[in-house]
Amino acid sequence: MEQYEAIRRDRRLDPEVGVRELARRHAVHRRDVRRALASATPPARKIPERVAPALGAHEATVRGWLREDMAAPPKQRHTARRVWQRLVAEHGADVAESTVRALVARVHVELAAEAGSVADVAIVQEHAAGGEAEVDFGEFEATVAGVAVRLWLFVLRLSHSGRAFVWAYAHQAQEAFFDGHVRAYAALGGVPGRVRYDNLKPAVVRVLRGRDRVENERFTALRSHYGYDAFFCEPGIGGAHEKGGVEGEVGRFRRNHLVPVPAFDSLAALNAYLVGCCAADDGRVIAGRRHTVGAAFAAEQPALQPLPDEGFEAAALLSCTADAKARISVRGAWYSVPASLARRKLTVRLHAEHLEVLRPGSDAIVAVHTRSLHKNTQTLQLDHYLEILARKPGALPGSTVLAQARAAGAFTGLHDEFWARARRDRGDGDGTRALIEVLWLHRRMTAAHVAAGLRAALRVGSTDPAVVAIEARRHADGHGDDPAGQRRRLAKVIALPTTLAGADRPAPRLDGYDQLLDREPAAAEVVS
User: Fold this and answer.
1) Which end of the chain, N or C, is less surrounded by CB atoms within 10 Å?
2) Which CATH code of 3.30.830.10, 3.30.420.10, 3.20.20.70, 3.40.50.300 fits the domain covering 132-303?
């Protein structure tokens, strides 16, 4: 184009210059000069018709097979791979499968045009404010507490404003599906009129013909509680375009906020990060729109349906039986319960991120655990085994529950120091029992108060659990923060003997009173 312009410019500046001179100046053929002078636009290049040496001889055969498929049942038509297999086996074709795939795709389009059928075309949609949202799960990887794990993003996206709520779960179970809705509606401050879904197992029991579905009863309860309608997409890849907004949001969020692979100390810390990412996304502008996502959501939020007065219970109720080690198995992981409940049938209220164990026959909670991110793991609490360890103190030093308590920070260096001194002063068994009495204090006092009691007892050289309890209670009453009390000199605690020398006295007797009962009254004592 630039060369044509230069040739035409030279002729315009010097009308007397000839074709031969222009060809010499611009180092082109005279034919090109004449074309440039005739038209400012170069002629389109001719695309040579390439002949496929390997497949060209078989193109008519392939076209014939695919034309015959138009009258065959849909499930018994040729795939590209089957076409390639037949060409190799029946015609000895030496051609790559990818080459056959390209030909099959082109022939399918040509045959559809011959038949007058219309290609599947998506229709652009308009979404009213507060009218609709879309839900999906997206998979991603993260490092949590130093271990690489596979997690799932729950994403609910408002179709009008593009505002999304994102939360990470360790699974796609029903309790996570429900918990995501509860959190999303609370974060958005309202409920959309309709929500689009895949045919997720937490929501759909069975897919029927067309749009009919047999819904899960708990999912129906969720919809009824919040008062919105559900729309289920077509099964398979064909229904992906029916909720393309959230499909694209999952990929966009993952690329922008989860690359490189994130690392956090806990799942809670990861979700706190995701909440910040959602807030930051309020400042972005979706292509083709004038306002930011945050501004569009601020205008849409009043159009959402109000939240119900009562919350929705997203937890699932399970029945478990504790084993001989006072553990229950939930979703492939083990959790401890109080030792008194070993071998008993228990009810578990399973939430998305934690579980609660209920006392048999009541709603009293006897144990709470954070759900494990991995199967075949043990989550044990030291407090659940104290009654057993008091009878078997020798089992404590090498126990798994002690190792987990140390790792979690529940069993501190103060406990270890007190334990070591108690075993030195009292022996292994009695010293461990003294420690267990101190650990029992955690059931009615905070860890800070018990730690203050341990420090006070160690300062005076005592390993008496009663001293720890007294000092912990004094600290709980507020005296531990008194500067005057902190400056006082603590005397060394001396254990008193069971009997004090020189201070023994016999137990009282009633013999003297019995003599009074046997004695006859005097005459003066008789009252007339």
Assistant:
1) C
2) 3.30.420.10
Helical (H) or strand (E) element with 435: helix 428-440
pLDDT tens for the chain, residues 1 to 528:
888 888 889 888 888 889 898 899 889 999 988 988 888 888 888 877 777 777 888 889 999 999 999 888 888 999 999 999 999 999 988 899 999 999 999 999 888 888 776 666 677 778 899 999 999 999 999 999 999 999 999 999 999 999 999 999 998 888 999 999 999 999 999 999 999 988 767 766 555 455 556 667 888 888 899 999 888 777 666 666 677 888 889 999 999 999 999 999 999 999 999 999 999 999 999 988 889 999 999 999 999 999 999 989 888 889 999 999 999 999 999 999 999 999 999 999 999 999 999 998 888 999 999 999 888 999 999 999 999 999 999 999 999 999 999 999 999 999 999 999 999 999 999 999 999 999 999 999 999 999 999 999 999 999 999 999 999 999 888 876 544 444 454 555 556 555 555 556 677 777 777 777 766 655 555 444
CB under 8 Å to 474, separation ≥6 — which residues?
Answer: 480
β-partners of residue 343 are none
Q: Which amino acid is at 113?
A: A
DSSP letters of 43-87? PPPPPP----TTTGGGHHHHHHHHHHHTTS-GGGSPPHHHHHHHH
What are 427's two structure tokens? 């022996």
Q: Is the overall model pTM greater than 0.85, yes or no?
A: no
Residue with token string 């990060």: 273
Residue-range domain boundaries for the chain: 2-38, 56-115, 132-303, 316-379, 384-487
Which conformational region is residue 274 in: left (phi greater than 0), alpha (psi within -120 to 50 degrees), or beta?
alpha
DSSP-based helix, strand, coil % in the chain, nearest 5: 45, 15, 35
Structure tokens at 278: 């959602």
Asked if 160 and 343 count as a contact pair (C-beta separation under 8 A), the reply is no
